[in-house]
Design a protein that fits this description.
Blueprint (H helix, E strand, L loop, with lengths): L1 E6 L3 H12 L1 H8 L3 E7 L13 E2 L2 H5 L4 E6 L7 H10 L3 E4 L2 H17 L4 E2 L11 H7 L5 E7 L2 H13 L3 H10 L8 H4 L2 H15 L1 E2 L6 E2 L7 H9 L3 E11 L2 E11 L12 E8 L3 E8 L3 H17 L11 E2 L12 E2 L1 E6 L10 E6 L2 E6 L3 E2 H11 L3 E7 L1
Parallel strand pairs: 1-2, 1-4, 2-3, 4-5, 5-6, 8-14, 9-11, 11-20
Antiparallel strand pairs: 7-10, 7-12, 10-11, 12-13, 15-19, 16-18, 16-20, 17-18
Helix pairs in contact: 1-12, 4-5, 5-10, 7-8
The structure holds L-homoserine.
L-homoserine binds next to α7.
């Protein structure tokens, strides 16, 4: 009998209890052993829940119980989630998590503690909700050098952008619905300001490069400034505006960023709508591989948490395959100002100002836009922006 403890009984925690219960017979048959949810840690009481009798409020009950060998952390936030995770690993307990904040901030240390204590720290649910992406990057693409990863990594913002584009929903109403559906973070600023996507892209970049970048240091821009006019201009070009996490592992180092982008119709990320996420991986042997599925929500995220629990139980007698990350240092990072891509410049007025690079222009109402034919760097873009003054409404990176 394997005893499991769940930390947190919110959206993902209750979903994990549900998956472990609903699919118990099937999972146990696949594992060839039985399991039991021994404890669920939460501050609240749940008198009407079928799990009421396993709710505990004191973390030490779990930590000190030697029978508990697998702990699923789904509390959200850095503290006490990080502290509890560390204590569990040091006590020789395996930990799985959906907590991208903890993985992206403390992943180097927690993976090292797992190695040193002969246990595993797994985090499939931390990126892309229910999409299998972490394990495929570690296992199935391990014969490749990863060159680039681009992804729609936040379900809440993709849901909002799709509702605004297709249903004319207001930003506030679309966000409210995303919260009701259990997609959004406790503080939705993490979603709409791109912070959640930044945490996820640095996790993917670390899986690709072995170097974890502090997510607070990467260029991060959210979706709050996108206007209906810009959405309409995008559609004139056959593009869709998506919040994109992007990383490149080049000869000059590792670059990662999050920003809204004009996604061209030839890019498969263009057609990923609502709460769905997509991750496009460019690798040197396989070429391009795309991962797609529900990026947030109770049962999809729980499905990934339980996949990690099953992995740990199924391989409990094997030597754990270590995840070895180092904290990215200055010398590991590429120069963001040299990052180059095509750009869409959007202007107030219907004339393209003189001195702009070659490209394709279109007019919508009292505005116009130019998509450059060639890639231009961040540095060149910033210099152009300075010269344009009030004529410029906004600039988007094109994908
Ligand atoms: N708030 C996150 C999202 C949850 O919307 O993608 C899943 O990580």
């Amino acid at each position: 009998m394997i005893n499991i403890a769940l930390l947190g009984f919110g959206v993902v925690g209750s979903g994990t209890a549900e998956v472990l219960t609903e699919n118990k017979a099937l999972i146990e048959r696949r594992l060839g052993c039985e399991y039991n949810i021994k404890y669920i840690l939460d501050l609240r009481e749940f008198p009407n829940s079928p799990f009421a009798d396993v709710i505990v409020h004191d973390f030490d009950t779990i930590l000190n119980d030697k029978e508990v060998t697998v702990v699923a952390e789904m509390m959200g936030g850095s503290h006490p989630a990080y502290d509890f995770t560390k204590a569990c690993l040091l006590a020789g307990k395996n930990v799985v998590t959906s907590n991208k904040e903890v993985v992206s901030t403390f992943g180097v240390e927690l993976c090292r503690l797992a190695r040193e204590n002969g246990v595993r720290y797994l985090f499939e649910a931390s990126v892309g909700g229910g999409i299998p992406i972490i394990r495929p990057l570690i296992n199935d693409l391990s014969s490749n050098k990863i060159n680039k990863i681009s992804g729609i990594l936040n379900g809440t913002t993709n849901y909002i952008l799709t509702s605004m584009r297709d249903n004319g929903a207001s930003f506030a109403d679309a966000l409210k619905t995303a919260q009701q559906l259990g997609y959004a973070e406790a503080n939705p600023s993490a979603d709409v300001d791109g912070i959640d996507a930044a945490r996820k892209i640095v996790i993917l970049a670390a899986l690709a490069s072995g170097k974890l970048i502090d997510p607070k240091t990467i260029y991060t821009e959210g979706i709050t400034k996108i206007t209906l006019e810009e959405t309409a201009l995008a559609q004139l070009f056959g593009y869709t505006i998506k919040l994109i996490g992007h990383t490149e592992i080049g000869e000059n180092g590792l670059v990662a960023m999050v920003s809204p982008r004009m996604v061209t119709s030839s890019n498969p990320l263009c057609r990923i709508d609502d709460v769905f996420n997509g991750v496009l991986v460019d690798a040197n042997m396989v070429g391009e591989v795309m991962f797609y599925g529900p990026g947030a929500g109770k049962l999809p995220t729980a499905s990934a948490v339980v996949a990690d629990i099953i992995d740990i139980i199924a391989n409990r007698d094997a030597d754990p395959k270590p995840i070895v990350w180092e904290q990215a240092e200055c010398g590991d990072l590429g120069d963001f100002s040299e990052y180059a891509c095509r750009r869409m410049f959007i202007f107030n007025g219907t004339d393209i100002p003189a001195g702009m690079p070659e490209g394709t222009a279109k007019v919508h109402g009292s505005m116009c836009a130019l998509v450059t034919a060639e890639a231009i760097s961040e540095k060149q873009t910033a210099e152009l922006v300075k010269t344009l003054g009030d004529k410029l409404a906004s600039v988007y990176r094109v994908l």
